[in-house]
Amino acid sequence: MTDYALTLFDIAVRGLRGVSLALLPGEIAGVVGPAGAGKTTLLQVAAGCMRPTRGEAWVWGCRVTDANARKLIGYAGDQAAFPRSLRVREVLLYYARLHAAADLERTPHGLVREALELAGLGAARNLLVGTLGHADLQRLALAQALLGGRRVLVLDEFFTNLDAIARRDLRGRIARLAAEGVAVLIAARDPAALDEHTVQELLAWLGANRALWNGVPTSFTVNLSIATLEDERFLTKVGAALNTHGIAAETLGFEIAESLCGQQRAKVERFFAQCEKLGVWIAIDDFSFDSQMLPLLRSKALRMLKLDARLTAAALRDKLSQAMVVASVQAAKVLGIHCSAKKADSHASLQYLAAIGLDYAQGTAPTRTVPLEAIATIVDSRSGGNPIPENNE
Amino acid sequence: MRFLQCVTAESALVAPRFTRTRLGISLLALGASLVWLSSRGLDPVTVALLAGSLGAILGAAGVAGSDNERRALATALSHPTTPLAIATGRWLALTGPAALLVIVCTAAVDWRPSIVAAGIVAAGAVGSCALSLVIPLGNATALGLFLLMALAGAVAPERLVALAHPGFVRLAAACALELGPALWHYRDVATGDWRAIAHALAWTGLGVLIASAFIARRRALN
Predict the structure, then answer these.
(1) What is the pTM for the complete model shown?
(2) Where in chain A is the domain with CATH 3.20.20.450?
């Protein structure tokens, strides 16, 4: 359990039932949902602010409700409150004294200097909290959350109501903390913000680590939510980021679940057209040969169909499912689209999928979230890493 | 040791508030009013008791009673400290200025160590009670307690109970005045009455414990 920075196991509290997650050091994971979905409740359990009625939460092998966990995990919310009559450095000095009381090797003033630098608050150190704008208040919330070198950050609605510049700056700071091994759990009401965050961080990483992936045919995919498909400016921002980092558009792909494509048809079609124009590609996830989807298969942006795992699993015993899998594979071949099956773990299913001419397959989906740096490995395993042998004797 | 360091961190928060909030000017105005009242016949012991108790209530409102301060408790609890350390530190933070006010007022009126001791003991007990009220209920209760102490705190219970209706109300009023922190109790501290000292110490401890229980409940309120 100590391999994980943060572990939630079978958490039940208020409206939440059986929530489990595990974060490795350096991972950034997002919890997305509408208001009232239980994001804040889950994050408060993760931060040790609330006791679950069932289940356990651990930070570096220590129960989050233990006093020692306060040294390891920091919490910052959108509504974080600080004494308004104090200056920024006085507020941080107050928290730093609490940490110094727990760790006598560190001086409060040293901890404050470190936190001010990491949160980018150096220029505002002498300002009264009551005079700070929202962006600086969020920086202060971040500074207090990471004070004392804490290894896990829990950020609730952290990017809400921030302007684009502040959001980008704070995103960069959080990414740098993650690169140093800090695990970050972020809750957001707006899934589009997290999608954009993921794409921007991926492109920034690709731009900075070109030597690791350039020279081999590689592509990277990001799963998108319906909110992002509805965001008309999303692809404009992606295009700008691709130009900024000098990355070819075909390197980037987006995965969209078939169920989402049916929800906002006109917007999805517009999104497909924009992707085609930009040069990025699309994979339809959980494809089940829904007749409504067929017109979208004409799009030149579409490069891969990922068959619904339930469909491929049922194909071994159900003729209708078998017919739909075969039809999907044949349609993909005719249209020049790759086709992939998920959860192709058994020898029997691999044999069957090879027999019907499937291009690619992947094993059981990872049960844990994966660091941004490891995305190449995941994409590889999802889209091209496990080609089915032609002869599976 | 760690507990004491956390308490010190809390109590260090009071100094910047003297000049940046209404706390400093309110204490000055209170002190000036009491000195003026003493020149009009208010006895020195009452001046010390009122300076201690009313100063402590103002302190409780200043260091813990505002909505912002109460919400900030949840942030403080996400750091390595405990509700008891926070409550003890805030109690020290509000008692310190009140004790200083007692010393200044007593020096201006009639300096006697026994009177100063009575004022400081009253500050501790009433401040602790005020803290246990403002943390869950906010500054409106501080105003109520302030008025109660200013107007009725120094009056002996017999006189107040006589004003109440007979029966249950009278009994309840008598019990409240007997058990609650009241200045007529702490007047006897100046004469070394151990029961008055014990009453004040009990309220000091009880108030801090109740306040820490309410602070612990604020952990998940943000």
Answers:
(1) 0.73
(2) 191-384
For residue B17, the chain A residue with the least C-alpha distance is A85
**A110-119, A253-262, B46-55, B56-65: least confident range:** A253-262
> A68 to chain B: which residues are within 8 Å by CB?
80
Q: Looking at A312-326, A360-374, B25-39, B68-82, which range is the least confident one?
A: A360-374
Q: Which residues of B touch A (CB under 8 A)?
A: 1-2, 5-6, 8-10, 12-13, 16-17, 20-21, 68-69, 71-72, 74-82, 219-220, 222
Give pLDDT tens digits for A52-69: 899 999 998 889 888 888
| Complex prediction ipTM | 0.87
Sequence ranges of the domains in chain B: 2-220
User: What is the distance in angstroms between the CA of the first residue and the CA of the last residue of chain A?
Assistant: 40
Q: Is A81 on the interface with B (CB under 8 A)?
A: yes
A6-188 classified as CATH 3.40.50.300: yes
DSSP A216-255: S---EEEE--HHHHH-TTHHHHHHHHHHHHT--GGGEEEE
Does the distance separating the beta carbons of B78 and A145 come in below 8 Å? yes
The answer to whether the beta carbons of residues A371 and A203 sit under 8 Å apart is: no
Q: What is the pLDDT of residues A130-157, one digit of tens each?
A: 999 888 999 999 999 999 889 999 998 8
Give the model confidence (pLDDT) of A309-361 as tens digits. 888 888 888 889 889 989 998 999 899 998 888 766 667 777 787 788 887 77
Q: Which residues on A lie below 8 Å from B78 (Cβ)? A: 47-49, 70, 74-75, 145
A183 three-state secondary structure: strand
Question: Which one of A64, A94, A126, A138 makes the best mutation probe of the B interface by having the most chain B beta carbons within 10 Å?
Answer: A94
Q: Which amino acid is at A349?
A: S
Q: Which CATH architecture has domain A191-384?
A: Alpha-Beta Barrel (3.20)
**Could you tell me which residues come within 8 angstroms of residue B63 by beta carbon, excluding any fewer than 6 positions away?**
B13, B14, B17, B23, B69, B90, B93, B94
